[in-house]
Amino acid sequence: MAWNDSDDGKDRWHKNSGPPNDLDRIVQNWQRKLAAIFGGGTRGGGGGGAPGPGSSGIWLLVGLLITGWALTGLYRVDEAERGVVQRFGAYTQTAMPGLHWHIPYPVETVDIVNVGEVAYYSFDTEMLTADEQYLYIEMVVQYRRTDPVKYLFEVTDPDGTLREVTESALREVVGTNTMADLVSEQRDQIAPKTRLLLQSTLDQYGSGIAVTSLSLERLDYPEAVQEAVDDTQKARNDHDRYILEADTYAQGLIPQARGQAARMEQDAEAYRDRVIAEAEGAAARFEAVLAEYRRAPEVTRERMYIDALQQVYGNANLVLLDTKSNGNVLYLPVDRLLEQSRRRGIATIEDGAPVVTGSAPEEDQASRERRDRRTRQ
Predict the structure, then answer these.
(1) Cα angle at 151 between 150 and 155, to 5 degrees?
(2) How far is CA 226 from CA 140, 231, 232, in A?
(3) pTM above 0.90?
(4) How far is the CA of 235 from the CAs of 152, 238, 241, in angstroms?
(5) Which of 54, 86, 138, 173 sits CB 3.0–4.6 Å from 217 for a disulfide?
(6) Cα–Cα distance between 87 and 337 in angstroms, integer?
(7) 349 vs 177, which has greater pLDDT?
(8) Of the candidates 192, 187, 189, 193, the residue with the CA atom closest to the CA atom of residue 219
(9) Please, which pLDDT band fits residue 140 given cuts at 50, 70 and 90?
(10) Per residue in 315-338, pLDDT tens?
(11) Is the pLDDT of residue 339 over 80?
């Protein structure tokens, strides 16, 4: 008898041992069933008896496995989706909305494509314009997967291809326009032109994607070059302003030069006319003097001599004194005295004071004769 067995056959350590709980019974039941299924051989000691319950259990397990594998071929397609069935990787059919079944993997597979969803993604890039301006563009592209077969088989990475084609179309639009056009009248045409080029390229690729809308969110200079762009714009404004000022100066200078040229021509013509008139007058006076000289040569020659002396001495600052009557002559700056007297008379007239005018003393006969003799000499 074992050490833990009592005289009555009960376990010393489990004094209150009763029936096993529910979990233990479930485990024991499953163990018995599995033992019955997988327990091979026949009962008794003979080797040629009928198969035992182990063989039937194997076939039951195989049937369960086949049933489970067949059930994996069930799939459901929603209203906005399409199911693309492939047999060993080759397209077989397109499943419409509803519950369907296909030969389970690895024979057939099904890819579900949502053709009713409008997907979108944000796109931003930096690029150069036609006038070499650095530009930052941000836009949002919305698209639908209209053809699930083309979407899955024609392009390796449809979504990645869409992004690359979007950038290519946008660069074509921006690279053929100047910055001034893009920020002014061509701004509203960037999105439609880009969408047209994008859809045309996607159709050529057979991507099965339709671009529904393309909106331009931002069009500006990058922050890293904003200060340099402002300086460049200021320089261009100064350049335009200088050109405008130069044009204004040229437009004002040319008429002024033409006016000066016309005035110089008029002055030259006036000078020519004056010189011609003076020459003609001098010639007429000479002819008149010549006629008088022919009639009275002595008188005319003396008169011409007197006129010449009067003209010469009349412009000279000279004072003639008679030194024969008095040997001692006190030098006086008569010319300066006369000039001062003349200036005082002019100042008196300008101040409004009365001017006293008197007749010069009459020259005696002897003085006149002496003056005439000196003149003849």
Answers:
(1) 85
(2) 24, 9, 10
(3) no
(4) 54, 5, 10
(5) 138
(6) 139
(7) 177
(8) 187
(9) very high
(10) 766 666 666 655 555 556 666 777
(11) no
- Cα(38)–Cα(307) distance, integer angstroms: 168
Q: Which helix (H) or strand (E) element contains residue 167?
A: helix 158-175
Q: Strands, E, within the chain: which ranges?
A: 74-77, 81-87, 90-95, 98-101, 108-114, 119-128, 134-145, 209-220
With residues binned 3-state (H G I as helix, E B as strand, rest as coil), the percentages for the chain, rounded to 5, are 55, 15, 30
SS3 at position 59 = helix
**Using the 8-state DSSP alphabet, how is residue 115 labeled?**
S
Look at phi and psi of residue 30 and say left if phi exceeds 0, alpha if psi is from -120 to 50, else beta. Answer: alpha
Between strands 81-87 and 74-77, the pairing is unpaired
How are beta strands 74-77 and 119-128 bridged, if at all? unpaired
pLDDT in tens, 164-208: 999 899 988 888 888 777 877 778 888 888 899 999 999 999 888
Question: Taking Cα atoms as reference points, which of 134, 133, 75, 147 lies closest to residue 104?
Answer: 75
CA 36 vs CA 57, 65, 148: distances in Å: 8, 19, 51
For 85, the token pair is 């069935």
Six token digits for residue 237: 């404004």
pLDDT at 2: 45
Q: Is 148 helix (H, G, I), strand (E, B) or coil?
A: helix
Q: Letter for the amino acid at 192?
A: P
pLDDT over 60 (residue 51): no
In this predicted structure, the answer to whether residue 30 has a pLDDT above a threshold of 80 is no
Locate 155 and state its tokens: 């392009």
d(CA 95, CA 365): 155
**Ramachandran angles phi, psi of 83, nearest 5°:** -105, 125
Residue type (1 letter), 251: Q
Say if CB 67 and CB 59 are below 8 A apart: no
Which candidate, 255, 254, 232, 251, places its Cα nearest to that of 243? 251
Identify the pLDDT of residue 99: 87
Structure tokens at 199: 């859809």
By C-alpha distance, which of 174, 196, 172, 195 is closest to 186?
A: 174
Residue 247 has pLDDT above 80, yes or no: yes
CA distance 153 to 94: 13
